[in-house]
């Protein structure tokens, strides 16, 4: 095992990822930031210098469980104080599993400003986690959505009365590149002077293939809002990995991917080699207001655009199509890690849109999450009373009577920074129940992400979860382990994990605006087993002055 050192400088730069100039948060001048490549068992050291001048930062290593290093999870307010402008923070953690992971800002809505990237961990050669599939070459595809408003304008709008929603993104990015139509209409006029379609910076990315060879595409999404559908024109994809776990291979013409998820797919370059093909990213689950994001699969070596129209993806509102793809994702037969047969505790979480003091918020069992000023990890370890609400948040809701198909009868909710404290080593089931939003006939997809763990996806349903009926339908045989999972419109998703990683872990909707509006909770387990905390994570809230 190797220790890999990285030195990162975070700064604002004028960038034109979709041909429109905008301030972006960059790493060493790049957005997305550099891909971290490592081998299973390596230790990663990233020294982050915050050169943003007036803005805090924190970086989360999405999908890395941080076993033994909960303070390196990079979640502002949960595991650390923000990195102040001019300050330096060193993240040190092990990558213990092979697979495709990502990193991104975890401070306010900073991820949307461009602070994100990929982590690729190769399997230890000859080890038990070697890939159960073969390929000749590999490409990385990181998907995102992109707005021309700053994240400050977005956040201020979300917190306003009445709320100003962020609306649909202007562009979809593939590896940080998109293409806004500079010459079209009113929207373009508003960007006058900042839109330049001739910039090489916004040229479509090109993925080279050699005819007859098989390629592994590692695909990740860190969208702020959009559920996406990814397609490689004319090339069916065999899904082989999800969130760092091997999948029982299945073939799709296009892949639904939610923010926070990663997949590996295999394609064979077996089409007419005298032309190129589109890679396409399309919005699904919300009515699309954004053009297809494109890149080029190049057989011909050049970057000439394919002679066809880019694939438009499946019908955006075909929930069952996406539901079935979720259900098809199960563990590879040779890599099944069976879940514990039963849970010690079941937490039912009703996902609703609510109102607090006239502001639109998201809530779980009518409680909307707010981050405390003192990171939980420090507050709990040091017994800093009053740092957060000591009352446990609700475990369930009126599941027998709540009508998930109507807007909430009483939209009022409360907000809290309370924590679900889990018995160390216990098995926990979480049922995420989706419901109608404040507006009638509307329910969206929520990609839920758990820090510090992978969880087994035991089942999905559409409609109301019944604790007396549905647990009998769980897949206990070969459920996939993931760190992010979709809850489909009006649906439910059941997951199980073992609370065996000492620390404090966020669990939240990966839509940036939803988490900002309270759609998350926090788990604590085994805090007494956490080793002495590094002083570097302190310095804010009740830990002011306690840092040196
Ligand atoms: Cu990738 Cu807490 O998120
Ligand atoms: Cu959400």
From TrEMBL:
Belongs to the multicopper oxidase family. SUPFAM superfamilies: Cupredoxins (SSF49503). It comes from the Eukaryota. Keywords: Copper, Disulfide bond, Metal-binding, Oxidoreductase, Repeat, Secreted, Signal. It catalyses: 4 L-ascorbate + O2 = 4 monodehydro-L-ascorbate radical + 2 H2O. It comes from Urochloa decumbens. Its EC number is 1.10.3.3. Pfam families: Cu-oxidase (PF00394), Cu-oxidase_2 (PF07731), Cu-oxidase_3 (PF07732). Gene3D superfamilies: Cupredoxins - blue copper proteins (2.60.40.420). This is L-ascorbate oxidase. Residues 12-123, 141-301, 399-526 form the Plastocyanin-like domain. The lineage of its organism: Eukaryota, Viridiplantae, Streptophyta, Embryophyta, Tracheophyta. Its cofactor is Cu cation. One of its GO terms (molecular function) is L-ascorbate oxidase activity. Dimer. GO terms for cellular component: extracellular region. It is found in: Secreted.
């Amino acid at each position: 095992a190797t220790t890999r050192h990285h030195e990162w400088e975070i700064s604002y730069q004028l960038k034109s990822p979709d041909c429109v100039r905008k301030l972006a948060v960059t790493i060493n001048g790049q957005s997305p930031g550099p891909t971290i490549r490592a081998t299973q068992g390596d230790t990663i050291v990233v020294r982050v210098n915050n050169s943003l001048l007036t803005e805090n930062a924190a970086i989360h290593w999405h999908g890395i469980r941080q076993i033994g290093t909960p303070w390196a999870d990079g979640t502002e307010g949960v595991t650390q104080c923000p990195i102040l402008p001019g300050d330096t923070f060193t993240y040190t953690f092990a990558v213990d599993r092979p697979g495709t992971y990502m990193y991104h800002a975890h401070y306010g809505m900073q991820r949307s400003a461009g602070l994100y990237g990929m982590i690729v961990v190769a399997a230890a050669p000859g080890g038990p986690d070697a890939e159960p599939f073969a390929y000749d070459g590999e490409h990385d595809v990181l998907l995102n959505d992109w707005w021309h408003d700053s994240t400050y304008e977005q956040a201020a709008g979300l917190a306003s009365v009445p709320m100003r929603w962020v609306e649909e993104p202007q562009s979809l990015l593939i590896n940080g590149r998109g293409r806004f139509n500079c010459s079209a209409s009113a929207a373009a006029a508003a960007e006058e002077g900042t839109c330049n379609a001739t910039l090489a910076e916004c040229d479509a990315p090109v993925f080279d293939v050699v005819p007859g060879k098989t390629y592994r595409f590692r695909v990740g999404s860190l969208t702020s809002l959009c559920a996406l559908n990814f397609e490689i024109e004319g090339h069916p994809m065999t899904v082989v990995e999800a969130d760092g776990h091997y999948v029982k291979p299945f073939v799709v013409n296009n892949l639904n991917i939610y923010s926070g998820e990663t997949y590996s797919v295999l394609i064979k370059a077996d089409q007419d080699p005298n032309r190129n093909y589109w890679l396409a990213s399309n919005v699904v689950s919300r009515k699309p207001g954004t053009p297809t994001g494109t890149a080029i699969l190049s057989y011909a070596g050049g970057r000439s655009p394919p002679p066809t129209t880019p694939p438009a993806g499946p019908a955006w509102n075909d929930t069952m199509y996406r539901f079935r793809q979720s259900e098809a994702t199960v563990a590879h037969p040779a890599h099944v890690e069976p879940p514990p047969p039963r849970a010690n505790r079941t937490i039912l979480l009703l996902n609703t849109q609510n109102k607090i003091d006239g502001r639109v918020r998201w809530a779980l069992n009518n409680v909307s999450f707010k981050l405390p000023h003192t990171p939980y990890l420090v507050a709990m370890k040091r017994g800093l009373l009053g740092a957060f609400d000591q009352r446990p948040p609700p475990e369930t809701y009126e599941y027998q009577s709540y009508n998930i198909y109507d807007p909430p009868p009483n939209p009022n909710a409360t907000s809290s920074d309370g924590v679900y404290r889990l018995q160390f080593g216990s098995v926990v089931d979480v049922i995420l129940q989706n419901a109608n939003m404040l507006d009638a006939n509307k329910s969206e997809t929520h990609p839920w992400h758990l820090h510090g763990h992978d969880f087994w996806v035991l089942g999905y349903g559409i409609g109301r979860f019944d604790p007396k009926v549905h647990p009998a339908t769980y897949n206990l045989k070969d459920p996939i382990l993931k760190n992010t999972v979709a809850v489909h419109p009006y649906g439910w998703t059941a997951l199980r994990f073992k609370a065996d990683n000492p620390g404090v872990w966020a669990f939240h909707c990966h839509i940036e605006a939803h988490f900002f509006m309270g759609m998350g909770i926090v788990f604590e387990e085994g805090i007494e087993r956490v080793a002495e905390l590094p002083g570097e994570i302190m310095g804010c809230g009740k830990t002011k002055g306690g840092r040196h």
